[in-house]
Amino acid sequence: MTHTQISRISGVLRSPITFSVLAGLVIGALFLVGTGADPFTAYGAVLTGSLGADGIGSTLSTGTSVLGMALALAIPLRAGLINLGGDGQMVLGGITAAVTGLYSPLPAPLTVVLALLAGMAAGAAYAALAALCENRLGVPLLVSSLLLSYPAVSLASYLARYPLKEPGSSLPQTRAMPDGVALPSFGDSTVTIGLILVVLAAAAYWFTDKRTAFGYEIRMTGLNSRFAAYAGVERRGLTLKLMSVSGALAGLVGAIGVLSFPYRFVDGSLTAPGYTWTGLTAALLAAAAPLGTVVASFFFAVLAVGGLAMERTTEVPRELTQVLQAIVIVFLAARLRFPSGWFRRRAQEDPHESSQEASPETSQKIGAA
Fold first, then answer.
1. Phi and psi torsions of 123, nearest 5°
2. Average pLDDT over all residues of the chain
3. Torsion over CA: 204, 299, 112, 251 (sign)
4. Phi/psi class of residue 271: alpha, beta or left (left: φ > 0; alpha: ψ in -120 to 50)?
5. Mutual angle of helices 319-334 and 290-314, in 10-degree steps
6. Which residues pair with 96 in a beta bridge?
7. Cα 338 from chain centroid?
8. For 17, which of 95, 212, 337, 367 could close a Cys bridge (C-beta 3.0–4.6 Å)?
9. In sequence order, which residues have a C-beta less than 8 Å from that of residue 146 and are 6 or more positions away?
10. Is the peptide bond before 184 cis (omega within 30 degrees of 0)?
11. Residue 291 to residues 204, 366, 367, 369: CA-CA distances in angstroms?
């Protein structure tokens, strides 16, 4: 190997992200052995059930919501802002899209577009309210965003159970969307064009983060807010902008959920799967980096869908996948790395390459990318 290749490999292996994922898989395997299951069979069932012909559709459908919420939470997190109100913003976007779809007089295609935009606007406005609570009233964003989530979820629940409830149904759900008011799907699968919309949002986030001055201001604020303020970055305005974009993406996820099967708003259907917390986990794992957030979201979507297949194949509860997620985050929070002594010994074997050992800063950059 050349010194450049060894430097890159050592940097990747020593990154907290790589160590966290590997540690989670190893500890998960120990849990499986403790239950009497074969780890290779269980992990194989996870991959087959999520990436096989019968499971890839469910993985992409789940990944749409997970990635959308991961992006929504990663954008403010890149600047050191934590938005814990994803559930409220997503549900408010979903119920707004449902109302728009049910009562819009426009043709079906235009109604779909209007419902998406209405959902995004509702989510953005509600997230902006949390930002204003911090900017004007001094309420920490973490607290304001979380507490505002509960009234939004309760309001949506009330509307689905009473004014908009489907007549004759015992379920807390709205009436079905009119004919044609739905996102186009790919073939007979449950994957809709919403996946394309979320991927486009990820591409826009990457471009803004890597190629614009605004993206540089966001990263600089996240690294050192005092320095950013000294350099002229107005934190209040930045908080309002980032929270609005974050809420708009969360509202988009809610609108996509309503305009996809079963084409209505069902109370609890958006919050029960835990898209917000899984998305936050993915954003934390990727350190809010655009490409890393996409990869981490897909990783957790595979775990979520594959866990069901693992339960059917090995009789191991699918909750094990949630344990894996928790372990990954615990190790990531601890910022553990592979011991650097191994790499030093490897470098000493080749004196020409010893000077090329990756620095901790390089490792962190590679891991965050």
1. -65, -40
2. 87
3. negative
4. alpha
5. 140
6. none
7. 27
8. 367
9. 84, 85
10. no
11. 11, 12, 11, 7
pLDDT in tens, 260-300: 999 999 999 999 999 999 999 899 888 899 999 999 999 99
Question: Quick check: helix, strand or coil at residue 356?
Answer: coil
Q: Give the integer Cα–Cα distance in Å for 172 and 160.
A: 6
Distance of CA 46 to the CA centre of its chain: 20
pLDDT (0 to 100) of residue 188: 86
Whether pLDDT at 168 is above 50: yes
Give the residue ranges of DSSP H helices in the chain: 3-13, 16-34, 39-51, 56-77, 86-103, 108-137, 141-161, 194-211, 213-223, 225-230, 235-258, 275-285, 290-314, 319-334, 341-349, 351-354, 360-368
Checking phi first, is residue 163 left (phi over 0); if not, alpha (psi -120 to 50) or beta?
alpha
Return the number of other C-beta atoms located less than 10 Å from residue 197's C-beta: 19
Q: Which of 257, 318, 307, 250 is nearest to 283 (CA)?
A: 250
Q: For residues 367 and 287, is the Cβ–Cβ distance under 8 A? A: yes
Residue whose pair of structure tokens reads 């999520």 in the numeric block? 50
Q: Is the CB of residue 90 less than 8 Å from the CB of residue 253?
A: yes
pLDDT of residue 365: 43
Instruction: State residue 335's pLDDT score.
Output: 56
Q: What is the DSSP letter of 337?
A: -
Structure token digits, residue 111: 């109604």
Alpha-carbon distance 178 to 283, whole Å?
Answer: 36
Q: 178: which DSSP letter?
A: P
**Paired strand residues for 266:** 173
Supply the pLDDT for residue 12: 64
Question: For 60-90, how does the pLDDT look when each residue is reduced to its tens digit (9 = 90+)?
Answer: 999 999 999 999 999 999 999 999 999 999 9
This prediction's pTM = 0.86
Q: Do residues 94 and 255 touch, judged by C-beta distance below 8 A?
A: yes
